[in-house]
Amino acid sequence: MKTAHQRLLAWVAEVEAMCQPDSVEWIHGSSIEYDRLMQRMVETGAATRLNRNRRPNSYLFRSDPSDVARVENRTFIACTSREDAGPTNNWIDPAELKKTMTALYTGCMKGRTMYVIPFSMGPIGSPLSRIGVEITDSPYVVVNMQIMTRVGERVLEALGERGEFIPCLHSVGAPLADGQEDVAWPCAPMEQKYIAHFPDENLIWSYGSGYGGNALLGKKCLALRIASNMARREGWMAEHMLILRLINPQGKRFHLAAAFPSACGKTNLAMLQPTIPGWRCECIGDDIAWMKIAADGRLYAINPEAGFFGVAPGTSMKSNPMAMRTLDGNSIFTNCALTDDGDIWWEGMDGPCDHAIDWKGDDWTPESGKVAAHPNARFTAPAAQCPVICEDWENPAGVPIDGFIFGGRRTQVVPLVTEALDFDHGVFMGAMSASETTAAALDVGQKLRRDPFAMLPFCGYNMADYWAHWFAMGDRLGAKTPKIFYVNWFRTSRDGRWLWPGFGENSRVLKWICQRIEGAIAARQTPIGQMPRDGDLDLEGLDIPAEDFAELMEVDRRAFNDDLDDAEEYLARFGDRVPKRLRAQLEAQRKRLA
Ligand code: TSX
Ligand code: MN
Known about the structure:
Distance between the termini: 68 Å
Radius of gyration: 24 Å
Bound molecules: ligand TSX, manganese (II) ion
Strand content: 15-25%
CATH topology of the largest domain: Phosphoenolpyruvate Carboxykinase, domain 3
Shape: globular
Helix content: 25-40%
CATH architecture of the largest domain: Alpha-Beta Complex
Number of helices: 16
CATH class of the largest domain: Alpha Beta
Number of domains: 3
């Protein structure tokens, strides 16, 4: 391989000696290489090629039924002090974990090929980008990384002989004995799975799972858990946020970054199609934002990824037409159903399906009494294929962020949109983000699941220190802090109807947000923040009954006070590491509600 990077070569040699693969292949990043890998996987039965006429250059994979999602209870932050990982992470002693995992890694690639994937998170050469190298024995990981990141020789070139890179080691944890036949989706049992982060040395070790966030180490492991540590040390931000550009009828651009817990439709919002005349929306990213203060004092964001790794079920021409069109070809599908004409299908897709092979490989009909696609089935598709991808999505300088949006899934209490009173109040809003748990017992009412900044599973250090970092960034941004908003698309009426149509109609809320950012309109101050005055939210062409709209915008002081009790209990978990400024926000909110 054409690299003279001694530290990289030494690391690869060291891993090879430990894992003992049959062979080593460096990934160049060409389409020929991609096709060859896919061809090999079709031959071994790991992949199914989809009907070329319906979905060219696209493939279906079925995972092992036990290896279908991120494994949070097997995800570890291995730093020196337990307190630095905080109460929301699984801490483990780095030396002890390395001993355990070294034993697992020893000989773990026997009978397999070890792939070396140099990759860039962010456009190659951007000052905001970071380089990683993933070593893996999973060809499925290689092809997914080729879509999700920039890989191969051009990355090695950018790395040079002394550049910094983040070593990411991955194995499915299933060595093959001499003559042993492989399975379609090799992986290790749950108690042997480890998704390990060593933030003190920017190192990632993953063992035992081939799935998504456990195995595509550039995404959650590097771009969020390790990057959040680097960002705090270096004074930037690594956030679980979509990035979009809104363009108003006058051609003025607004850039928004938004963080939502799972099941709020983040990818749908990232590819929003505005329903209001003259407004356009473009996608820059759907999952992760890396942001840095530039020379002009403003905050600029890049999307470190190059593709979308999205939840398939529920994605349709109704909920997200731009995502559907992104998947027209050159895509990978995992745990979706296979139709009789060689295409994919999932629950919530437009149109029914009479017969399919389900995600486990079994015969399926609607009468089978089970789902055809796994609820966490995924698509992997190049971002460049999105019809509304922003022309600046790979701009190495990033885009200037005008506003942050937080949110959650709340059928009660939280109104459609509020604007933070100031930056500190906005940090409080982000820290208090919560969704109702779907599995709440009927008699206990709705239980809240807090997911601060949608970073609960992704903050690679103590969440309380993370809040302090937000305040510190706010101080540095001064007058140039983005405005902060909180939205809730999911409020229902007392008789259980959705009060807000959601989806493309959310553009009406985004319009108000842009008008507030511009300073074009005033707002009504409420105890929980600024809200649209009567008539300010553009409802032209919608027929929402006045009573419904009033309910959607209602601020119930008692209910909000109860929420604050829950919030206070939540903060107590973090002890005296909680920034005083955050506690002050809680007290201020209480006073306003009294
Ligand atoms: O993604 C969603 N968004 C954001 C879109 C940009 N979903 C799907 C959530 C699961 C991932 C939504 N669901 C949204 C929403 O704004 N709102 C709702 C609730 C809802 C569902 C259906 C209707 C209205 C609201 N209407 C009809 O079905 C006709
Ligand atoms: Mn995500």
